[in-house]
Amino acid sequence: MHLRxxxxxxxxxxxxxxxxxxxxxxxxxxxxxxxxxGCGKTTLLRIVAGLTEPDAGSVHLGGxxxxxxxxxxxxxxxxxxxxxLFPDLTAAANVGYPMRLRGVAVGTIATRSTELLAKVGLxxxxxxxxxxLSGGQQQRVALARALAxxxxxxxxxxxxxxxxxxxxxxxxxEIRTLQRSLGIPTIMxxxxxxxxxxxxxxxxxMRAGHIEQIGSPRDLYERPASRFVADFIGRxxxxxxxxxxxxxxxxxxxxxxxxxxxxxxxxxxxxxxVEAGPGGxxxxxxxxxxxxxxxxxxxxxxxxxxxxxxxxxxxxxxxxVAIGATRGAWVAA
Length: 333
Ligand code: ATP
Known about the structure:
ABC_transporter-like_CS; Rossmann fold; ABC transporter; 18 strands; 5-stranded antiparallel β-sheet; transport; P-loop_NTPase; alpha+beta; 2 domains; binds adenosine-5'-triphosphate; 32% strand; 28% helix; CATH 2.40.50.140; single chain; nucleotide-binding
């Protein structure tokens, strides 16, 4: 179902949490709201959920204006960071709860709960209480419960952030597979760029209450619209024009018009080419060997570049090198 957010603004007292935020999400999109702490992600998700009222703007789901509709009538499944299961209900009863509220027949609830628990990898765990489950398992139950209401939209607020890294990576993959197979449009809040890159069809990159850029993970990585996006997503070398003019003049041709100070060239570390040889005018500052790759810091007259090279490269600190780049993107400084 298509979601349209139009001109949403929200202030808390005198501080603006959201300033005219608009975006669309397609029928089975996985959208990640990504941005640093305090940029307004959760506020936006809560407005979509109907838990917070916006000061201005509208929310449409499937063509219907739901801006003033109470949360319980929106048909959305929500999973929060804290597992928020009912502690005195078993996993199966937790999953069955939304169906019970809707008056679904007891037999159907039992069958559906068993199916949903199996879907999230918890077949056989239906009789356990939340305190008999690990954090990752509890979050799976919360996910199954959110799916039980057959939501028109699934909302996930940092659902993985309380989990340890291994479980987190595993559950991340499972959420993606499940979301694809069910085709439910999903909005997830995260401040973790890796999570957003791995999960999203569309990333909405936010900063201080507004949207910096919307696009696919690849768009944002390869064509960041601003220094902020370039820096926030992945590693970036942000290089001033005078450096580009002297070292990689070929890139100047594609620079948008404007004064030197208004643009920087964003080079991803893996796009930097480093060639050892006495003619080079840069020097290897240090190299960190990471197995499959090596991270080198290259110093060109005080401008330090981070380069990622194959692990087998034999660069050594102090070695003279020439540098180039296979691709780059100009970003507003
Ligand atoms: P985080 O990643 O830390 O959760 P966030 O991007 O989700 O951050 P929000 O929780 O949406 O950010 O908060 C945006 C701004 O609004 C922050 O400055 C926050 O302090 C403020 N804020 C959020 N909820 C309230 C509230 N109920 N009352 C007052 N201010 C609030």
